[in-house]
Specification:
Layout: H1 2-14, H2 19-25, H3 30-37, H4 45-55, H5 60-66, H6 70-73, H7 78-86, E1 90-95, H8 106-114, H9 122-135, E2 146-152, H10 153-157, H11 163-176, E3 182-187, E4 201-205, E5 211-216, E6 221-224, H12 227-243, H13 247-260
Parallel strand pairs: 1-2, 2-3
Antiparallel strand pairs: 1-4, 4-5, 5-6
InterPro entries: Cro/C1-type_HTH (IPR001387), DUF5753 (IPR043917), Lambda_DNA-bd_dom_sf (IPR010982)
Protein name: XRE family transcriptional regulator
Domain DUF5753: 79-256
């Protein structure tokens, strides 16, 4: 990634552009360009092609990205995903362990960070909570992202943080389901089979209509624009939406859970 970043910086300078200038001419922000050039963020294939055209590189960047070893092709840090998330036109999120970060209350988020092993310092916990709440602003913008969430029933039946925190979280989840452009569906535990057994994932459409997929494991994460991989997860997500409760049924379930708590 560092070599590709250095090449981008060289091509940009040779073209007589600052990072801000390139950002004004492309779909990438000045911050994103700086991160790529410093080797802190991978250059995604669609941006490589765009920069090649703007900087007249003869396709050098796209070719370089295509030749990278698999482990270096795509970002492995959640920060890269969040950068695209902030500018997304739409996203589809399947989660089976916890409530998706964009739908968490402050108390629930704090409880999840306090559950991490190795344990985080209170300062790190509070900073992580603040960062997570800031991410949620994409659901409240003047032109909010179109967001679909499918969550396992296990996430709303759990007791993360305790009874009162979970009651507040379920109430908040119901409020989020009424936001413009937001859909929340619960996947019942009683389903004999479903398409989400391989774990959580997020599908995302960028401002320039690039389709990406993000997955996480215990100690790693991957953001990919590979068409085959994105297509497979899109097929899974479509099936999950059919296997989940619809919006009205989900509201009814959340109301019943609130009554029980």
């Amino acid at each position: 990634m560092e070599v590709i970043g250095a090449q981008l910086a060289l091509f940009r300078i040779n073209a007589g552009l600052t990072q801000r200038g390139l950002g004004e001419r492309s779909t990438a922000s000045e911050e994103t360009i700086a991160s790529i050039e410093q080797g802190r963020r991978a250059l995604m294939p669609h941006l490589a092609t765009e920069f090649d055209q703007l900087l007249n590189t003869g396709g050098a960047l796209a070719t370089g990205v295509a030749k990278l070893p698999p482990k270096e092709k795509y970002p492995i840090w959640a920060e890269d995903f969040m950068a695209y998330e902030r500018q997304a036109l739409s996203l589809g999120w399947y989660e089976n362990g916890v409530i998706p970060g964009l739908l968490q209350t402050e108390d629930y988020a704090r409880a999840t960070f306090r559950s991490k092993i190795p344990h985080l310092s209170e300062e790190k916990v509070e900073q992580s909570v603040t960062d997570r709440l800031e991410r949620q602003q994409i659901l409240h913008k003047t032109n909010p992202v179109t967001a679909s969430f499918v969550i396992s029933e296990a996430t709303v039946l759990s007791n993360i943080g305790g009874r009162e925190i979970m009651r507040g979280q379920i109430s908040h989840l119901r409020q989020c389901a009424e936001l413009t452009g937001v859909s929340v569906q619960v996947l019942p535990l009683k389903r004999e089979h479903h398409a989400g057994l391989d774990g959580p994932f997020v599908l995302l459409e960028t401002a320039d209509h690039q389709h990406l997929a993000y997955t996480e494991a215990q100690r790693s994460s991957e953001l990919t624009s590979d068409a085959d991989e994105v297509s497979i997860l899109a097929q899974k997500y479509g099936m999950l939406r059919m296997q989940a409760l619809d919006a009205e049924e989900t509201m009814g379930l959340l109301d019943r859970l609130l009554g029980e708590r």
